[in-house]
Amino acid sequence: MPQLIASVEGVEVKHVFLRKxxxxxxxxxxxxxxxxxxxxSGEHCVFELRGLADVYVEDLVSTNGTYVNGKMIKYRQQLHxxxxxxxxxxxxxxxxxxxDSSYHATDGMKLxxxxxxxxxxxxxxxxxxxSSAGLEVPVVKAVTTFGKPAVSVVAISHRRDGYYxxxxxxxxxxxxxxxxxxxxxxxxxxxxxLELAGTSMQFLLA
Length: 206
Hints:
This protein has about 210 residues and is mostly beta strands. The chain contains no helices and 23 strands.
């Protein structure tokens, strides 16, 4: 399924699958893709899906223009796999198909990642120990931090091929399924257990 991945300075801010015949992008809240930034016009551009996978982009007479691979578009233009759109300081990568539903962990084992209907994953951590046991904390940002400052803090990053965890700060090393986590991020799989500063949390994908 065709998809768009929007980022600002390398940080992913939007990830949208193109399911509709017309998908609008703009600053106004009624757009399908809302980028609330002054460089984005109220109705900036539209993506048209034709057939199963042919996607065209058209600028809607925006103030700052829509660029594809560095060139301003003046007419409806077909997108190709890995084309890069630019709108102000937003970079929007077009992918003609979804990423493969599996990835390889550092030990070489293939881990299957469950996908919800339509291919959109929702991630969360379920607290397994302590007074907050049973609490589920959603992971909704491109980068989310968990832990206690000066004790142990991890960063959970959402990338195109899944979720990753890395140790940021603190003297106590976090553990993932009984193995220490370093500063180099490693992939997370459904039902992984993260030990962080004395608290156990289960990673869930639904």
